Amino acid sequence: MRLTLTTPAADLPVSLEEAKRHCRVEADDTEDDPLIEGLIAGAVDYLDGPSGILGRAIVTQTWLLELPSFPVALDLPLEPVRSIAITYLDASGVEQTLPDGAYELNAQPSQRTQLAFVSGTALPVLQNTSWPVRISIVAGFGDASACPSGLKTAIKMMVGLWYEHREAIIPTDLVSGWPAPIGALLARWRVSL
Predict the structure, then answer these.
(1) 81-99 pLDDT, tens per residue?
(2) What is the share, in percent, of the chain residues with pLDDT greater than 70?
C-alpha cells in the first residue's frame, strides 16, 4: 500500500489573526508573525492527516491510495471521508474507472470508514504491476471555516502554549501528553485505530 498527498489543504484551519488574538499579540505587531505562522503549521502538522495523532484530515485535501490488488474490505487511512473514486489498470494496462455502484462506504463515528465491494460485484482482472488499484480519497471537514470549533480551540491553545513557553518543559497529562484542557479537546477527535 502506498499513500500520497495529491492536493494539500488550501489553507490552515486557524488564521494568523486568530492565533495572534489568542496569544494576545496586537494585530499591528508583526515582529513575531513568522514564528506564529510556523507554530500554527507545526500544530496542524502534528494533528493532521494519516500520520497526525488525530488520523483525520482537518481541512479538505486529496490523497491517492495505491494497492497491489482489490481488497475484500479496507479501512481507509483517514477521516472524515467526503468522497472516493477508484481507478485501476486493466489487464491491457489501460486505466479504467470502477463504477460507484460497485462499492460502498461504511462510516462509523470515531472509527475508520470502511470500503467494501457490493456483493456480487465481479472485480476486473488487473495488469501485473506494483500498484494497479488507485483510490483517490477526498477527506476533511471542508474549508477552514468548517473546522470544528473544538479543534480550532485546541490548535490555538497549542500555539499559545508554544508561543509562551518556547523552550520550557510544561507539566502534562500523562495520557495525552498535553496539558489537560488541550488533551480533552483533542481526545474527542481521535480516530480509533
Answers:
(1) 999 999 999 999 999 999 9
(2) 91
* pLDDT tens-digit map of 22-45: 999 999 999 999 999 999 999 999
What is the maximum span of the chain, computed from C-alpha positions, in angstroms? 63
Q: In this structure, what are the phi and psi dihedrals at residue 33, rounded to the nearest 5 degrees? A: -55, -45
Q: Is the peptide bond before 68 cis (omega within 30 degrees of 0)?
A: no
* Torsion of Cα atoms, 123 then 124 then 128 then 133, to 10°: -60
pLDDT, tens digit (0-9, with 9 covering 90-100), for 137-166: 999 999 999 999 999 999 999 999 899 887
| Cell output for 37 | 505562522
Q: Are 80 and 141 in contact (CB under 8 A)?
A: yes
Q: Exposed (0-12), middle (13-18) or buried (19+): which is 14, by Cβ within 10 Å?
A: buried
What is the enclosing helix (H) or strand (E) of 81? strand 81-89
Q: How far apart are CA 141 and CA 59, in angstroms?
A: 6
How far is the C-alpha of 108 from the C-alpha of 116, rounded, in Å?
14
